[in-house]
Design brief:
Layout lengths: L1 H33 L5 H28 L1
Helix pairs in contact: 1-2
């Protein structure tokens, strides 16, 4: 039972780190999107990738919330 609890806590810790890393990446993408030097085709790709990353980040946050 203790091993299962420890494993669950470790998983939540790892998922929390993934969320932090993802949120930092979203901030960097937002910075690139807002740059005046970003070409239109790059802007479109970045916007799509940012959206996908934000969706996956929310899914992970929900998993963490459900496991607590």
């Amino acid at each position: 039972m203790q091993d299962k609890l420890t494993s669950s806590k470790r998983r939540v810790t790892l998922l929390s780190q993934v969320v932090l890393d993802s949120e930092q990446m979203i901030e960097k993408i937002d910075s690139l999107i807002s740059s005046a030097y970003t070409p239109e085709y790059v802007f479109t790709d970045l916007t799509r990738e940012r959206t996908l990353l934000a969706i996956e980040t929310m899914k992970i946050k929900n998993r963490i919330a459900l496991s607590n």
